């Protein structure tokens, strides 16, 4: 059985003064080693993040309004720790690692005119973390998939969804994002909407709705993790 070693010694601080250690096995060198990456990928479950139908990869036949959706896995265990350390301990070295894990789950070949669209992070979160965590991963993913990113959305209001119930999140998400007036939507492009975690799906669904209203016809969803199923 794979041993998971939990690093509880303020990983953000340690990464500044000591070599990275794998969040899975403790091996020095990288914040997640190749062996533990494989462990995460091998343990991934396929299901629809919206209706939770199992064995679904990409397009769910039940959720007709949801575009093909891809993610690394459920937000538990090692994957949960990686996301937590990246977001809340500013372990920026995890950005390319998480992007690589997500790239494996996406189709091997994307349409040639693909654009990765990160959902904008609240400005107070960017200030507290010192960087835009979704934009950074989107940039790394674009390098891997040989496509580009574009700031299609801008944050309309500094809404905070942490802890809000589904109904409140839906209202907040509808207000939170708006199409950037400086960006022209290309009807022939494939827009890959990216967010870090699917909790209720409110943010993703609001983004999809507004993209479609702006003229986008080809949309894919990419997420790092889906909230716990229980």
Key structural traits:
five-stranded parallel sheet; disordered N terminus; alpha/beta; 7 strands; 230 residues; two-stranded antiparallel ribbon; single chain
Short description:
The chain is built from eight helices and seven strands; from the N terminus they run ααβααβααββαββαβ. It is of the alpha/beta class and 230 residues long. The model is unreliable at 1-12 (pLDDT under 50).
How many β-strands, per DSSP? 7
Class by alpha and beta content = alpha/beta
Give the strand order of the largest sheet, numbering strands 1, 2, ... along the chain.
1-7-6-2-3
Biggest sheet features: 5 strands, parallel
Q: What integer is the average pLDDT? A: 88
| Count of helical stretches | 8
Share of β-strand residues: 15-25%
The poorly predicted ranges are 1-12
Helix and strand layout, with pairings?
Elements: H1 11-17, H2 34-42, E1 69-74, H3 77-88, H4 94-105, E2 114-118, H5 123-129, H6 133-145, E3 148-149, E4 153-155, H7 166-176, E5 177-179, E6 190-198, H8 202-214, E7 218-226
Parallel strand pairs: 1-7, 2-3, 2-6, 6-7
Antiparallel strand pairs: 4-5
Helix pairs in contact: 4-6, 7-8
What does this structure look like?
This protein has 230 residues and is of the alpha/beta class. The protein has helices spanning 11-17, 34-42, 77-88, 94-105, 123-129, 133-145, 166-176, 202-214, and strands at 69-74, 114-118, 148-149, 153-155, 177-179, 190-198, 218-226. Strands 1-7-6-2-3 form a 5-stranded parallel β-sheet, with helices on both faces. The two termini are 24 Å apart. Residues 1-12 have low confidence and may be disordered.
């Amino acid at each position: 059985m794979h041993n998971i070693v939990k690093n509880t010694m303020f990983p953000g601080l340690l990464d500044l003064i000591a070599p990275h250690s794998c969040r899975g096995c403790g091996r020095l060198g990288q914040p997640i080693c190749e062996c533990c990456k494989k462990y995460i990928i091998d343990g991934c479950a396929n299901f629809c993040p919206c209706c939770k139908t199992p064995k679904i990869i990409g397009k769910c036949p039940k959720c007709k309004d949801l575009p093909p959706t891809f993610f690394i896995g459920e937000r538990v265990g090692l994957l949960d720790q990686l996301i937590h350390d990246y977001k809340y301990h500013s372990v920026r070295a995890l950005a390319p690692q998480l992007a690589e894990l997500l790239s494996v789950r996406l189709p091997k070949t994307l349409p040639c005119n693909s654009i990765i669209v990160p959902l904008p992070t609240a400005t107070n979160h960017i200030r507290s973390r010192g960087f835009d965590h979704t934009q950074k991963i989107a940039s790394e993913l674009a390098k891997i998939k040989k496509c580009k990113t574009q700031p299609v959305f801008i944050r309309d209001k500094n809404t905070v969804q942490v802890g809000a119930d589904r109904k409140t999140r839906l209202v907040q998400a509808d207000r939170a994002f708006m199409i950037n007036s400086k960006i022209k939507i290309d009807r022939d492009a494939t827009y890959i909407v990216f967010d870090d975690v699917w909790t209720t799906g409110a943010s993703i669904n609001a983004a999809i709705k507004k993209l479609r209203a702006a003229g986008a016809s080809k949309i894919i969803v990419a997420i790092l993790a889906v909230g716990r199923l229980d």
